[in-house]
Design a protein that fits this description.
Elements: H1 3-8, E1 12-17, H2 23-27, E2 33-39, E3 42-48, H3 57-60, E4 68-71, H4 86-90, H5 93-97, E5 109-114, E6 133-138, E7 154-157, H6 158-165, H7 170-173, H8 183-192, E8 210-215, H9 221-227, E9 236-237, H10 238-255, E10 259-263, E11 265-266, H11 277-286, E12 291-296, E13 306-311, E14 319-326, E15 332-339, E16 344-350, E17 356-361, E18 367-371, E19 378-384, E20 393-400, E21 405-415, E22 420-425, E23 436-438, E24 457-462, E25 487-490, E26 494-496, E27 499-501, H12 504-524, H13 533-543, H14 564-573
Parallel strand pairs: 5-8, 5-10, 6-8, 10-12, 12-24, 24-25
Antiparallel strand pairs: 1-3, 2-3, 4-9, 4-11, 6-7, 13-22, 14-21, 14-23, 15-20, 15-22, 16-17, 16-21, 18-19, 19-20, 26-27
Helix pairs in contact: 8-12, 10-11, 13-14
């Protein structure tokens, strides 16, 4: 079997390996696997699942299991609102489109890694009807030719796309579609949609930028089953996101043009301190010349999916209770519990019927399965005393068919005379069926990954009509107290080609448009030709608007509200 078949087959598990292996020796064994190399010491292995144990943190180590990511939009698009420029005005993009700057993203490339794109829409065409899209890599469509250097999916270039646009049946020539809520189409139009009817019918911050799209393939069923993701929910796995980013970097290097990458997905799992493989890879990308990565802060701020237990140094033996309200019809969910170093914690679990599991220790480094007597509930517990990269203690609880009612996780500090912290996160809202939330949640540290990485731009959302914070938006800081989000952008009823959309995905797209404008000024026009993503982030932070009645930086707005015009004003005054 070739590697392309293994990559797309549910019979093969995907594993991420970030250390050097003697691959030649592995290939001489009888194992049924193949691998793809992302960079020097980062590979993705595709291994026959029959040769592997069942998924668990203790058997595979947490770091190497691909995470599952969802789309960063709240609710459905609102139709019939009509186009307006309120959000573009709020971030200063309209002002810098005008003379003397005249910045429209010309010469730059916007890369949208998401659910795909409706390439037939007028907002992705030039005035002559030709496409502004340079390429689409559809990871799901296997009938065509993969991009050079990649092993799966189908790539469609501008010539093919233009040919499809000129035909009576475009999808017979370029069969890629955006069917997952048209989320990618919305974000691409917000960041880099064309100017229609001189900007009165539609306009974006970067209407003259070229566009590259990666349509992520849906996560494999075995992964969705492990994370208990509802069957019909759009869900993307970390390995495919890594591939998409590598593709985007390759485009930037080949074209030698400035590139802004917008990744409109997230997950509530992970250490929330920037230590995942994906976050560390994004950190390296964002330090490359002429590349910037923009990420949404997530929409978990008001979901009740984070609980924090704080212990004083003398609280040894004290227990705190995290109560989870679970509704009817719940198939199941995961909960991740992260404990700070050097303290040790003991976990207990009590069902709504009063059955109790005691003394779940972080020392286990193994998997245990608990079946409840008076219900069909099964809870699988994985515990790691030391998670490999963060060094934190980790327990993963997997609830199957949980009984409706109040489930209580007890957290007890075992020893040590230092203050201690224990955090619990539940899945993002769209990965749940029915209610599951903490009765006493902590709204902070609710940024979704990979936005907790240090390097890329992390954007929260506010309402540009009222100026108030969008309550669903993720809030900072990171678990390591790194200042995130970097700033906020409009994320409520933002006009897009599919209607008015809300969520931090829209805020990230608006930010990406502003980044493309800055890149035109800095790179295309030669004023800062070697600028990288870290520098661009800090230029934008310096221009962010900060009201006098708030303390800065803060957990909602970061360093302020994005204003690309004020960034140039501050440069002028230097």
């Amino acid at each position: 079997m070739d590697c392309r078949t293994r990559i797309v087959s549910n019979d093969y598990a995907d594993l991420m390996v970030d250390f050097d292996l003697e691959v030649n020796n592995l290939e001489n064994t009888a194992g049924d696997f193949c691998f793809y190399q992302i960079e020097d010491n980062l590979r993705i292995f595709y291994v026959n699942r029959e040769e592997l144990p069942d998924l668990s943190v203790s058997d595979y180590r947490y770091l190497y299991l691909p995470g599952c990511y969802g789309l960063m939009q709240v609710g459905d698009a609102i139709q019939g609102v009509g186009f307006n420029t309120v959000a573009l005005e709020a971030v200063g993009s309209l002002r810098v489109q005008r003379e003397p700057l005249g910045l429209t993203g010309l010469g730059c490339v916007f890369v949208c890694i998401d659910s795909g794109i409706d390439y037939t829409s007028p907002v992705f065409r030039r005035a002559d009807g030709s496409s502004r899209i340079l390429a689409i890599w559809d990871q799901e469509e296997q009938s065509g030719t993969p991009p050079e250097g990649f092993l799966y999916g189908s790539e469609y270039g501008r010539e093919q796309i233009n040919g499809a646009l000129g035909s009576d049946n475009p999808y017979e020539i370029v069969p890629t579609r955006d069917i997952a809520g048209r989320h990618g189409t919305a974000l691409a139009s917000i960041a880099a949609g064309s100017s229609l009817e001189e900007g009165t019918a539609f306009l974006s911050a970067a209407p003259d930028a070229d566009i590259v799209v990666v349509k992520l393939k849906q996560a494999k069923p075995y992964l969705k089953e492990y994370y208990l993701v509802p069957e019909d929910t759009p869900c993307y796995q970390e390995t495919d996101v890594l591939m998409a980013l590598k593709y985007a970097v390759g485009y930037a290097e080949a074209l030698r043009r400035p590139v802004c990458i917008c990744l409109g997905i997230g997950t509530s799992f992970g250490d929330h301190a920037g230590n995942s493989i994906l976050e560390r890879y994004i950190n390296r990308i964002n330090t490359l010349r002429n590349i910037t990565v923009v990420l949404p802060a997530g929409n978990e701020g008001n979901a009740g999916h984070h609980y924090r237990a704080l212990f004083r140094a003398d609280d040894v033996g004290a227990e705190q209770s995290a109560e989870i309200r679970v509704g009817d019809g719940k198939r199941g969910f995961l909960a991740e519990i992260w404990g700070s170093v050097p303290s040790l914690f003991r976990i207990s679990l009590r069902s709504p019927g009063g059955e109790e599991i005691k003394d779940i220790s972080f020392r286990l480094d193994t998997t245990r399965v608990y079946d409840f007597v008076y219900s069909d509930t099964r809870v699988t517990v994985d515990a790691l005393l030391v998670e490999q990269i963060s060094g934190q203690q980790l327990v993963v609880m997997r609830f199957e068919n949980p009984t409706p009612g109040i489930w209580t996780i007890g957290i007890e500090l075992e020893e040590e005379n230092v203050p201690a912290v224990c955090d619990i996160w539940l899945p993002i809202q769209q990965f749940l069926t029915g209610d599951a939330y903490f009765l006493e949640p902590t709204p902070y540290i609710t940024l979704t990954m990979p936005a907790t990485g240090a390097s890329a731009i992390c954007v929260s959302a506010y309402n540009s009509d009222t100026g108030g914070f969008f309550q669903e938006s993720g809030r900072g800081f990171t678990r390591a107290d790194v200042i995130k989000p970097d700033f906020a952008a409009p994320g409520v009823n933002v006009p897009s080609v599919i209607g008015a959309v809300s969520g931090t995905g829209a805020a990230a797209a608006l930010t990406a448009g502003a980044v493309l404008q800055f890149m035109q000024w800095a790179v295309v026009e030669g004023r800062r030709p070697l600028v990288n993503g870290v520098e661009i982030k800090n230029y934008l932070i310096r221009g962010a608007r900060r009201e006098d009645n708030l303390t800065w930086p803060n957990r909602e707005f970061g360093y302020g509200k994005l204003d690309i015009y004020e960034t140039f004003e501050r440069l002028r005054r230097v």
